[in-house]
Amino acid sequence: MTDTQQNEPELTDDEVSEQKAVRLGKRARLIEEAASPAGGAYPVAVPVTHTIPAVREEFGHLQADETSGVDVGIAGRVVHLRNTGKLCFAVLQAGDGTRIQVMVSLAEVGEDSLARWKELVDLGDHLFVFGEVVSSRRGELSVMVREWTIASKAILPLPNLHNELSEESRVRSRYLDLIARDQARLNVVNRSKVVASLRKTFADRGYIEVETPMLQVMHGGASARPFVTHSNAFDTELFLRIAPELYLKRAVVGGIDRVFEINRNFRNEGADSTHSPEFAMLESYEAYGDYNVIAELTQTLVQNAAFDIAGSHTVTWADGTEYDLGGEWDRIRMYDSLSEAVGEEITPATPVEDLRAIAAREGIEIEHPLPGKYVEELWEHFVKGNLVRPTFVMDFPVDTSPLVRAHRSREGVVEKWDLYVRGFELATGYSELIDPVVQRERFVEQARLAAAGDLEAMRLDEEFLRALEFGMPPTGGLGMGIDRLLMALTGLGIRETILFPLVKQG
């Protein structure tokens, strides 16, 4: 069947304004015709007996021109509409995108009702219809309407559903994206399944989920620039959380040996295809575990999530590409892989002047006092782009990892890994630093960097250090972005995996 939007161009602003005025007039008429006009234009509830997906599942076997003898009451949004003389057609869409045709005939509803349909019903309206489930002469599963009601009037016209919305339109008006695109709805479903999968994996391993403060008097747990706010009640400066780490570690000190949180974090930094100022983060800590235990946990979390949305460890991205997350993932060392790529040995003892010379030779602009910053930037330049399979990059420079334990057998590095999937960092894991004396020394060094102008440096957190002084067991920790996990599983950019991402106004 055809519809009123088929092959039509998008409406101009003037045409939208004109349609809005017409639709507001129809709304006024609905109020006038209401049994209780004071109650407004729309019914408070409608007697739905079946969902559209349920009707399709139960009666999908009907052959062309066959009737079921069963009456149903269904509701949905009008996404196609074609009015003819004595028989009108519409397609109603459920929230999950499932559609069904409805037919309004003169013989079933009468002249007055058919005339009202033609005068009042528009694309985008929410309708309730009641009638028999049938199959049309062309074999289209339908409801032959006997009664109908406008449940909600669309005052603005829908965009042309035959035209692809631009990415900017999809992000700024996600509600229209959800109406128009199957992929947008699937993204929401997949995200929900992934979060449920993560929680189940943790529950199966005896983890406890907690909540930590979003407003903090001291920002910490990551090297990031915070958002600053003010509490009127306490008349004090506060920071939006950049990470829950320091509070979750307090929980471990208190005896919650396996703890995790799925939370919102806020970092006052740039936005691009893999970064958002507001994002969802998973962090977990396991007492008496180390970064090797956490690597195994992370692989299990991701593989279980893949299986729960795709039925396999091989996922299919939105562009049709297949990506294999199965098997044991590769592990490489940062310094070893960098040395191999550069063609000369680079170690934690390599002078910063030598690292600066390599960076200059490659056209990499770095200006930082820490040698570790040069090592990490050089590694990203030389190695990161060559990683195809999921890969744990092990053993980072000590001076860039203030919350991580020194490596048990290698000088100048810490027991930290970053997990790279699809060429971007998905997660990070630590053998956590639990010695309060060393932690204080690391914080003092961070304070020195902050005084020198490093906006991402951590502050000295006396309350956290006090907690460590009561004794924290050896612990392994994990941090993983939920949005980035969806990116790895779907092949989409970060703005597509977040339902309502922050975007620049205007």
UniProtKB/TrEMBL annotation:
Tell me which SUPFAM superfamilies the record gives: Class II aaRS and biotin synthetases, Nucleic acid-binding proteins
Q: Where in the cell is it found?
A: Cytoplasm
Please list the reactions this protein catalyses: tRNA(Lys) + L-lysine + ATP = L-lysyl-tRNA(Lys) + AMP + diphosphate
A Gene Ontology cellular-component term: cytosol
Report the top EC class in one word: ligase
Per UniProt, Mg(2+) 1 binds at: 418, 425
Q: Which domain of life is it from?
A: Bacteria
E.C. number(s) listed in UniProt = 6.1.1.6
Indicate the quaternary assembly.
Homodimer.
Cofactor dependency:
Mg(2+)
Q: Name one GO molecular function term.
A: tRNA binding
| UniProt entry keywords in alphabetical sequence | Aminoacyl-tRNA synthetase, ATP-binding, Cytoplasm, Ligase, Magnesium, Metal-binding, Nucleotide-binding, Protein biosynthesis
Q: Which family does it belong to?
A: Belongs to the class-II aminoacyl-tRNA synthetase family.
Note on cofactor: Binds 3 Mg(2+) ions per subunit.
Does the record carry Magnesium as a key word?
A: yes
**Chief location of this protein?**
cytoplasm
Name this protein carries in UniProt:
Lysine--tRNA ligase
Q: What is the lineage of its organism?
A: Bacteria, Bacillati, Actinomycetota, Actinomycetes, Micrococcales
Q: Report the source organism.
A: Leifsonia tongyongensis
Keyword Kinase in annotation: no
| InterPro entries documented for this protein | Aa-tRNA-synt_II, aa-tRNA-synth_II, aa-tRNA-synth_II/BPL/LPL, Lys-tRNA-ligase_II, Lys-tRNA-ligase_II_N, Lys-tRNA-synth_II_C, NA-bd_OB-fold, NA-bd_OB_tRNA
Q: Which residues bind Mg(2+) 2?
A: 425
